Amino acid sequence: MTSTTRILYLFFLIGLTSLVPGSLSAQGGFAEQVDRALGSNQELVNGIQFTNQYIRSEGHPYWIDGGFKTGSICINDQWFEQLQLRYNLFSQKLELGYLTPEGHMNQIITVPENISAFFVGGYVFRRVQIGEEASAYYQVVSAGATTCYISWSRDLLGTRSSGTSFGPIEREYWMHQGERWMYFKNQKGYIRAFPKEKKRASKKLLKQQNYYFWRATTGEMVEMLMASIRLLEEGGEP
Q1: N or C: which end of the chain has fewer CB within 10 A?
Q2: Who's near 75: CB < 8 A, 6+ residues apart?
Q3: More confident: 21 or 32
Q4: Which helix (H) or strand (E) holds 120?
Q5: Among 53, 52, 87, which residue's Cα sits nearest to residue 67?
Q6: What distance in Å separates the CA atoms of residue 126 and residue 151, rounded to the nearest whole number?
């Protein structure tokens, strides 16, 4: 049985079990069933069954368009591939979709602490801790000795009485090179974060790219960040 088949079968077993938040591996009967069927790799059975908590809210809390995308997750340095994933930016949790043998689509909400990284939509996300911030998922863009970490979030606005809706996607950036950390989230912050001798080049880069943080697509963002990393790595004009 392949690792992909194993993880999907595990999710099917979860779908047949009465779930509560927290680790399921402590439930003796269920753990014994999994052990008899698939062996003792029970790190994959942590999670809760999906319920739509935002059905009355306008919009959605997900990364990009809200649909499931084929991707991979990393648990204990082992990658599981060809999974259906979507990233909830409000809860900061990864959701996995799977088909039961009857062909029904089920979903499970994963435990963030159990997944050290995931790959979806052609982009890599890792769970890291930056400074005094709590551990969280960050998209990672890196080259040479420089790495940029991008946090994605989406707030739920309004009240139950007036109605709720999901706000726009927010992105924040931490760029790390050696002992230097640079934080920014908009045009002014980006230029201010660069060392004095490279501020002029950073302004030129934004102009050349015709780049605006609030409207950039993910692809445009990655292209700009790679150009910024080259500027820091090489020290020259973009």
Answers
A1: N
A2: 43, 44, 114, 115, 116
A3: 32
A4: strand 117-120
A5: 87
A6: 10
Say yes or no to pLDDT of 30 above 60. Answer: no
Query: What does the alpha-carbon distance between residue 202 and residue 187 come to, in Å, rounded to a whole number?
Result: 10
Residues in the chain: 238
pLDDT value at 211 more than 90: yes
**Which residue do the tokens 């908009």 mark?**
186
- Written as one string, the DSSP assignment of 200-214 is HHHHHHHHHHT--TT
Distance of CA 75 to CAs 78, 112, 218, 234, Å?
5, 10, 26, 35
Residue 53 DSSP label: T
pLDDT at site 21: 37
Of the candidates 143, 139, 119, the one whose C-alpha atom is nearest the C-alpha of residue 128 is 139
Q: Does the pLDDT at position 65 exceed 50?
A: yes
Output the pTM of the full model.
0.77
- Which residues neighbour 13 within 8 Å (Cβ) at sequence distance 6 or greater? 30, 33, 34, 37, 45
- Type and span of the H or E element at 93: strand 93-99
- For residue 21, give the DSSP letter: S
**Which pLDDT does position 104 carry in this prediction?**
74
Whether the Cβ atoms of residue 153 and residue 169 lie closer than 8 Å to each other: yes
Rounded to 5 degrees, what angle do the CA atoms 114, 87, 20 make?
Answer: 55
